[in-house]
Amino acid sequence: MEEFHKVRRLPPYVFEQVNRLKASARAAGADIIDLGMGNPDLPTPKNIVDKLCEVVRDPRTHRYSSSKGIPGLRRAQAAYYARRFGVKLNPETQVVATLGSKEGFANMAQAITAPGDVILCPNPTYPIHAFGFLMAGGVIRSMNVEPDDSFFGPLERAVRHSIPKPLALIINYPSNPTAHVASLDFYKDVVEFARKNEIIVLSDLAYSEIYFDENNPPPSVLQVPGAMDVAVEFTSMSKTFSMPGWRMGFAVGNERLIAALTRVKSYLDYGAFTPIQVAATHALNGDGSDIAEVRNVYRRRRDVMVESFGKAGFEVPPPAATMFAWAKIPEKFRHLGSLEFSKLLVEKADVAVAPGVGFGEMGDDYVRLALVENEHRIRQAARNIKKFLSTADETMHNVISLNTRR
Q1: Do 190 and 319 fall within a single domain?
Q2: With 90 as the cut, is the pLDDT of residue 392 above it?
Q3: Which residues of 217-233 are buried (b: 16+ CB within 10 A; e: fewer)?
């Protein structure tokens, strides 16, 4: 039976192949150390959970909620932006709550995209950045992901040679998966370019609070004068407060774009459960100690991974931010590509990682390692990988023989 049009437009979900192998290995009794999915293992802070429990006991909160977010939650997000970035937001017109940043991106795509619209998207990048616009009928043009001078040459060529002219540019810093961090000067150049060429900027800032240089917290594109004319920014509470299953995020910025997203959402959902929104408000209005503790845990795990994997013969550059490391596949295995290498790690080392090709074809020489296992488990993963790499010649011989028989 033929697939539906929108489903046909989506590339294969390569992570599913690793997930199937992982599930099969676990069913056979293997202890798989899962560094694949970016699914935080830390518990949500107790004070946030307590607030949820308190509010959920009130039956009045069990009714439909507000799609755009309850007023107190939108005010709390505006206050957070004022404290953290010095950015003033009107909670009535420049803030909308979303069911995580992923839903916000997908519904923004539905709100602003006409069939055939060109979207400039980093490659590699988080899948929804491209898939959301593909499902909305857009056309993706891949862009360099490095936040430096090399970013703007291809950008100018894309604007010059795209027909129709690009509608929007997606930026994602700190980046998932590469962990690159952008400077405020870079954002100034992006905003200047977008205003000059009348292009919308959609900024994914989901990892704004997971950074490891205390003197250089990642900035917001909205800090740039004039950014409100062209930009919307998406944030999430999933990683910042270890609340992934709560599905709470935000879109903030340009009033026209926020209004379009709000209108689309009003047809699709009634917002998150009210007690979740109240608990999220409580979290945002906190003193920041919960955020600092989450950051410290990821810093310790990062340091353990970089050291132990390096000693095992698998070089992992220390990420400056996010809960991920982006590591080049060891040279002996690089020709296999990231998907086959990731399968080998599950089968031979009991370690699951995310294949870089799942974030775009330009990521195929890499794998993404999530800091979602404790330090002991990360060290165990390194020992398993060291043993696997020590038998690399035998493994490659078997892989080549298998492919030849096929």
Answers
A1: no
A2: no
A3: ebbbbbbbeebbebbbb
Last residue of a domain, which of 235, 250, 284? Answer: 284
CATH number of the domain within which 93 lies = 3.40.640.10
Calculate the average pLDDT of the chain. 93
**Residue carrying structure tokens 């950015």:** 87
**Is residue 313 domain-shared with residue 400, that is, in the same domain?**
yes
Residues 129, 122 contacting (CB under 8 angstroms): yes
pLDDT value of position 284: 97
Q: Are 264 and 111 a contacting pair, CB within 8 Å?
A: yes
C-alpha distances (whole Å) from 141 to each of 20, 138, 372 are: 31, 10, 32
Would you say residue 189 has pLDDT above 60?
A: yes
284-293: pLDDT as tens digits: 999 999 999 9
239-286, pLDDT tens digit by residue? 999 999 999 999 999 999 999 999 999 999 999 999 999 999 999 999
Strands 351-352 and 231-236: unpaired
Cβ partners under 8 Å of residue 28, min gap 6: none
Q: Is 92 left (phi over 0), alpha (psi -120 to 50) or beta?
A: alpha
Residue with tokens 């926020």: 258
Cα dihedral sign, 84-88-93-94: negative
Type of residue found at 63: R
Beta strand 249-253 with 95-98 is antiparallel
The count of domains in the chain is 2
Residues 101 and 128 in one domain: yes
Domain of residue 322 covers 5-43+290-405
Using alpha carbons, select from 183, 176, 228, 186 the residue that is nearest to residue 206: 176
Percent of the chain topping pLDDT 70: 96
Q: Tokens 């096929």 sit at which residue?
A: 406
In eight-state DSSP terms, residue 321 is B
- What does each C-alpha distance from 79 to 89, 91, 277 come to in angstroms? 8, 9, 15
3-state class of 5 per DSSP? helix
Whether this prediction's pTM lies above 0.85 is answered by yes
Instruction: Indicate if 125 and 29 belong to the same structural domain.
Output: no
H or E stretch at 233:
strand 231-236
Q: Are residues 29 and 92 in the same domain?
A: no
Asked whether the beta carbons of 342 and 201 are under 8 A apart, the reply is: no
- Alpha carbon distance, N-terminus to C-terminus of the chain: 28
pLDDT in tens, 224-234: 999 999 999 99
